[in-house]
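Continuing the batch. This is chain 6 of the set; chains 1 through 5 are on the previous pages. Same settings as before, nothing changed between runs. Recording input and output for traceability.
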Amino acid sequence: MFKIRYADINDSKTLGEIHSKSWKSAYKGILSNEILENITVEKRQKYFEKALSDGWEEDAIIFNDDEAVGLICIGKCRDTDKPNTCGEIWGIYLLPEYWNNGIGYELINWGLNELKKRNYDKVTLWVLEENINARKFYEKVGFKHDGTVKEITIGKKLNECRYEKTIT
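Output for chain 6:
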């Protein structure tokens, strides 16, 4: 049975564990081993402690029974070319052993519903161009690449693609 709730600062270590394990699996072969080895639970825990204590990020955790298995970060769209009626999924991460079993759908649908409650009519997200599995997942749940690409650097230059979905 799945349960989703908003995270608080006491969940920072759990968020850090999920985030670091997910990154290490999702980005293997995309990012260098050196970069991935540098993504530690402790560093991610500190990030989430600051983000949650400062209130600039909203995170939620999905539980399978009593085990925390995923997280989603949601909020107002950060892109300056989008209107105030646009929300954003800043990130969605699952423990690798829970990929491809429906938990991601539960979590993203929960996030979309939460953003809809805030009167957002569109939602965007950014995904690495090389992250084919994530792109396929987002397309299955109705997101479409809007043609926007930006270059970022995570040890090397990478392209991120913006995806968008209308929510009604």
